[in-house]
Amino acid sequence: MRVGVIGAGLGGLLVGAKLSRMGCDVDIYERLPFVGGRFTNIEYKGYQLTTGALHMIPHGESGPLGRMLLGLGAGVDIVPSSPWATIRIPTDNSFEDIEFKEFISRLSLWNKFMCKLLMLEARFSVGTGYSFKDWISRRVHDEGVAKLADSFCGWALSITSREVTASEGVSIIANILKYGGSGVPVGGCKSVINALAKVIEESGGRIYTNRKVDGILVEDCTAEAVCLDGEDVTYDVIISDLGHRDTQRLIRGDSHVGCAGMSKYDEVIASMHPSSGVKINVGSSESLIDHTGILLTPYAQRVNGLNQVTNVDPSLAPPGKHLIMAHMAMRESDPKEEVRLGLEDLEMLFPNADYEVLMVQRYADAWPVNRCAPGEDIGNRTPYDRLFVVGDGAKGQGGIEVDGIALGVEMLVESLLRCTLVIFLPLLFLVF
The whole model's pTM is what? Predict the structure, then answer.
């Protein structure tokens, strides 16, 4: 099977590695001069910053991405976070960091019981028509819990808990209970990207950088070819890592207008809202976080959480330095004001600390945190036969960040395998 993949972000490389390992003939086209998209490293002042995602995998080595890398033989060392997360809460004179269990232990007896009920509902994937915030608030009447929900959603999804559906929030909690907490890949995001590129090349696949796809040729509602520099290159299957909306913009040909479900598809993708966020990269000679997990900050104005990745891998910063990454969801439309509030948060969270703001990165519009917000995801399929979507615009339900991308790729590969069996099993019976 000849497969053409548009985009060499994490989703494109994952599906390319998986299919090339299965014996498919895979070509991957990337318009940028590098692979990895929003999941690779940028060297700056001796620090390994990133093009988007944090140097962290939400479910560590036991989650969907970790398991897929292991199955592909992609050698990436993912160090489990310990603890998975702490929560910074205010005290009379300063702050203290506590783990989730201690946070819950400080609630009233009734709210403790309600939190246990919420966890039970999550285990059995009990969803409702509420928002995630309202689903929690109708059970637990505590301001700290509401703030923690916003902090977690801002860190993991780059939206507030009110913007997440309860069913999606429940699925996310269920996945945390199933797969566990986060981990840090040694070498950062780029170690994952390099490992996947190696798998593809060793399996006979090809990755072309600086190759912009101009269109996808569709005939009789079937994707036939990718358009490159005036030439149509035909494939049995075409997979886009660009999200549904940008993939639809590439469609060429006159016979696609009447495809089944087209009007509904156009309506749905037009309503999608990319999630946007800001990452503040900090360098410090002193350690600002004393563990390898996430520091959630529910009482900050804007910053939702931070991690100090050099506690796992000192090579991500110059000798004697630490790299701290703070992330925040964009709540208002003025990015300068949002950044100002984020910088104020750092001063509040780390008073008297000697640190340097290395770089402030905003992710929005054509370079967002996620191409569609959680709950808006419509999966891998398009109205066209043999054209599919992967990446952060087609994650599995309850999938957080890169683990969600891996879930989406798993679902697509399983679907393609089922289709192949349906086609070829009758032929095998005829032959034998």
Answer: 0.93
